[in-house]
Amino acid sequence: MPGFELFGAEERKEVNDVLETGILMRYGFDGPRQGIWKAKELEQAITEVFGCKYAQLTSSGTAALTTAMAALGIGAGDEVIMPAFTFVASFEAVLSVGAIPVLVDIDETLTLNPGAVRAAITPQTKCVMPVHMCGSMADLDALKQICDEHRLILLEDACQSIGASYKGRSLATIGDAGTFSFDFVKTITCAEGGVVMTNKEEVYRKSDGYTDHGHDHLGVDRGADLHPFIGYNYRISELHAAVGLAQIRKLGTFLGLQKKNNKALRAYLEQIPEVSFRVVPEGGDDSCSFLSWFLPTEELTKAVVTEMKTQGILAGNFYWFVNNWHYISKWDHLKNAATLSALSDVQREALLRLKETAFPASDAIMSRCISTAISLVWTDEQIREKGEKMVAAIREVLQANK
Ligand SMILES: *Cc1c(COP(=O)(O)O)cnc(C)c1O
């Protein structure tokens, strides 16, 4: 998963370019910056590497989602259909623009179940937001068709799946807009950062202004910029962009290692007939940042987690079902509408209703799923040791529960 594992001279060089001029801001100061425009250069690189027309960097992946929603016109009272398995940032962004997160079931892709999306559509639905969790993706053809039929916006939260593709196109470039996060544990990192990608000029132009106080960036200098709409400050700094620039140049290396290590570890787990794997939609190419696998029952999965913990080999393995960050079962703050300032009535009512909403289909999947984070720096020997120990722990539990 994380680009931080291969941080080095390349990142230091790019950051140093910025430190030499002292211009830490991405806009203005044209003279003193001596031609150093790291954020602009990174945006250009993103459009080339991922194949989209426009890229707008932001201060975080959460800010990228918020920006994309604002630029797509999602706001007060609009419903956004999203999965019950994601990171808390996905619903934070929905709430931040005044919209309502409508959480629905996932399937064995670990992402939105298209049938559940269809069933959740109401006259207030404005957007479908698949979250491409753990390196792989939702069935985008099915979701696109639903969006086309119902005239809905498709916004891809691809924050966790940098480098994965669907039918030859990079995730985050297929919907009306898509986002990546470059936070510290993502496939490429800026320390903190994110990006909105789109092929729509208008969505880009709005994202550009929105992330910089609504400044239109058309003035002869910054002071002469006008404000066609109200924005915020979700800017990235040149220092952060510099790190990202070094990282994006190494993305091919990161993905190569991820795929190789994922495949090698998977070969061990494949020896166990009771273990199955996450479904990747046809035409999908997993970024391989995680290896997500299933056991036949919740009881066996919990026993394997306990056994791995006892043996000291649980680190890097995520049992999301009981995880505070990623699954509806533990989002009490969301279900209690625990915000610091008042929500709108419709938002509050929708959140409180989540307390009464059950997700048996998602529970049946998440309770059997373990995701193993794939390191870029594992040696062949470490993978062998890890694989053998995992297989032994799983076999032991299966044997004891025969
Ligand atoms: C990391 C992440 C985000 C938000 O990213 P930040 O940069 O940490 O704000 C959004 N969605 C998902 C699924 C993520 O994993």
Proportion of beta-strand residues: 5-15%
Shape: globular
Assembly state (oligomeric) = single chain
Q: Are any ligands bound, and if so which? A: pyridoxal-5'-phosphate
Radius of gyration: 22 Å
CATH 2nd-level architecture of the largest domain: 3-Layer(aba) Sandwich
Number of H- or I-type helical stretches: 14
List low-confidence stretches. Answer: none
Number of strands: 14
CA-CA gap between termini: 35 Å
Task: Give the class-level CATH name of the largest domain.
Answer: Alpha Beta
Cross-sheet strand order for the largest sheet = 1-9-8-5-4-2-3
Helix and strand element order: HHEHEHEHEHEEEEEHHHEEEHEHHHEH
Kindly report the average pLDDT value.
97
* Domain module tally: 2
CATH homologous superfamily (4th level) name of the largest domain: Type I PLP-dependent aspartate aminotransferase-like (Major domain)
CATH topology of the largest domain: Aspartate Aminotransferase, domain 2
The amount of helix comes to 25-40%
Largest sheet properties: 7 strands, mixed
Strand-pairing-aware structural class: alpha/beta
Give your account of this protein's structure.
The chain has 14 helices and 14 strands. The chain folds into 2 domains: 3-250, Aspartate Aminotransferase, domain 2, CATH 3.40.640; 252-400, Aspartate Aminotransferase, domain 1 (Alpha-Beta Complex), CATH 3.90.1150.10. The mean pLDDT is 97. The longest helix has 21 residues, at 380-400. The chain is globular, with a radius of gyration of 22 Å. The chain has helices spanning 9-21, 38-50, 61-71, 89-96, 114-120, 140-150, 201-210, 238-249, 251-269, 298-310, 332-335, 345-353, 360-366, 380-400, and strands at residues 54-58, 79-83, 100-104, 125-128, 153-157, 165-166, 169-170, 177-181, 194-198, 276-277, 284-285, 290-294, 317-318, 369-373. The strands form 3 sheets. The protein has a 7-stranded mixed sheet with strand order 1-9-8-5-4-2-3, with helices on both faces. It has a 4-stranded antiparallel sheet with strand order 10-12-14-13. It is of the alpha/beta class. Residues 60-62, 86-87, 89-90, 131, 157, 159-160, 181, 183, 194 line the site of pyridoxal-5'-phosphate. Residues 60-62, 86-87, 89-90, 131, 157, 159-160, 181, 183, 194 line the site of pyridoxal-5'-phosphate (PLP).
